[in-house]
User: What shape does this take?
Amino acid sequence: MTQLAPNYSSMAYLTKQRWNSYWYQLHEVTSLPRVKTILEVGVGNTIVTSVLRQMGYDVKTVDMDPQTHPDYVADVRSLLGIVRAPVDVILCCQTLEHIPYEDVPQVLRDFHKLSNEHLIVTLPYSTLGTYKPRLLIKIFPFIKEFRWIGCFTLFPKRHPDSRPGGHFWEIGKRGYRLKDVLALFPAQGWEITKHYPLFENPFHYMIVCKKRV
Assistant: This one.
């Protein structure tokens, strides 16, 4: 699969919403117990990797773009032949949509073999034809704010044919309902412990899994 990498260091890429996505990734990883080793699949600009390493985690990275300087230059569909040592958690954010949907189950099975316990994934949730209301209420400074977000696909659009570096599919597009995408994970040995759209960036959908033995 040939992929053209975006300019990961440009402000057009480093939006406020994307920075929020980095925070959620770090939050979910650091909330997991007994995590020492991490495999980040789709390293991009290395921001999350750099912070995790500064926190003391042993992080290895995979990306098919050698310009991102990963530990392993590889397609996500060929990890078993390259990554030998299992890790405590696999972090794969905004990556699986870059391969055909029919290849995703096999990748999730490979992740199951490579992870000792956890998998964290984010996927794009289409904004086209989808209604995403958000509510934030904070009345008193000493009471935690209330947040709520919903995603309702009212008029699903067909996903256009992928171009190099583009998305093959997205949640909320025609044929890619959220419940069907979520069903891929338990079918490949993963228990979903939580899943939610990111409040500040509802285009990104978080899925946190625990390995079923």
